[in-house]
Amino acid sequence: MATLVVDENVIKVLPSVKEIVSVSKSGESAWARASRIDVLHEDNSKESYFMKVSRGHHGLEALKGEYESTSEIYAITPDFCPKPIAYGTFETDKDSHFYICKFYEFTDGLPNPKMFCANLAKLHSSHTSPTGKFGFHVVTYNGDLPQDNTWETRAGPSAELDELLQPFYDNVIPRLLRPLETSGNTIQPSLVHGDLWCGNAAITDEDTEEGIVFDPSSFWGHNEYELGNWRPERNKFTRKYFNAYHSHIPKSAPEDDYDDRNALYAMRFNLNAATLFPTQKVYLDMVIDEMRRLIQKFPDGYTGHSPRADILAHQRANAMAVSQNAKVQQYAGDVDGTSALPSRQGQPISAEINL
Question: For the whole model, what pTM was predicted?
Answer without folding.
Answer: 0.75
